[in-house]
Input
Amino acid sequence: MKEINTFVNLYNSVWNESDAKRRREIIAELWSEDATHCTHSLEAHGHEAIEDRVLKAYEKFVVTGGYVFKTIGVADEHHKAVRYSWAMVPRDGGMAVAAGTVFMLLDDDGRIRFDYQFTDVLQAS
Output
């Protein structure tokens, strides 16, 4: 696995990435081919479904909503598990409208096998 902060920053960057080719490259680099990404309301299995999930979030929150996703605090990892906190903030500055935690379980190659996204705070925007 990459150094933890590099890993988390790359993971977080995919949600803000405007270039479709680069998004696919990041997904292929970080997630195993049989990875699962979960939120409370959805499950995406495999690179194609994860790419679709990321694209929909990008279009809804970054393009249309004018937000960006940022890491918060320090990431933590041990025993093939990674956890970090994130926030969705207005691109031009201001208070976070959403924040949460990502918990990932990695495979033996250091790629994401299971990716759980939790939303801790959601404000009306």
The chain has three helices and six strands. The chain has a mean pLDDT of 93.
